[in-house]
Amino acid sequence: MLTLEKETRIRKIHQEGMNIRGLAKLYHHSRQKIREVLECPEPRPYSRSEPYADPKLGPFQTWIDEILKTDEKQPPKQRHTAARIYRRLKAEQGYQGGYAQVQRYVAAHRTHQREMFIPLDHASGRRMEFDFGEIEVDFPEGRHKVSVLIAMQKDRLRGGSLQ
């Protein structure tokens, strides 16, 4: 196998004057392989020619999708991991495949949510502290969760609240 380091050495030695046959003998590869390396100025990235498909997982994909869909509504600590889904597949559905296939499928189909940060600009010596959260509020229609933002101006030098 040719590593990135070997490919760069082959290109460099060829530029210095060594022929393809000499490079093939030196690195124990065919002349065709050496020509392929020399044709591309940069190494080719690896790419799978066909998308990976697991025939054993195929019938269970809708079942996994249902689990992932219900997990979106759950708190992060209560969501299924790929290992938990795999154990349930084996126990409840009689799945005969391997864990890696389940792990790849779950990773590809799980929705990822990223935290967002807002850069704050403040006068020197002063700052604002913000805290995001949820509280439950009683409305005439019933109790509902409401998102809140609490902002507090702080004096950086003393660490206390400004009045």
Please tell me about this protein's structure.
This protein has 163 residues and is of the alpha+beta class. It folds into three domains: 36 residues; 52 residues, no CATH class; 44 residues, no CATH class. It is 39% helix and 17% strand. A hairpin with a 2-residue loop joins strand 1 and strand 2. The chain is flat.
Uncertain segments? none
Kindly, what is the distance between the CA atoms of the first and last residues, rounded to a whole number of angstroms?
69 Å
**SSE series:** HHHHHHEE
What is the overall shape? flat
The biggest beta sheet reads: 2 strands, antiparallel
Pick out its properties.
two-stranded antiparallel sheet, 3 domains, alpha+beta, 6 helices, 163 residues
Explain briefly what this protein structure is:
The chain has helices at about 5-15, 20-25, 30-40, 60-70, 80-95, 100-110, and strands at about 125-140, 140-155. It has about 160 residues and is an alpha+beta fold.
Layout of secondary structure:
Layout: H1 4-15, H2 20-27, H3 31-39, H4 61-71, H5 82-93, H6 99-109, E1 126-139, E2 142-155
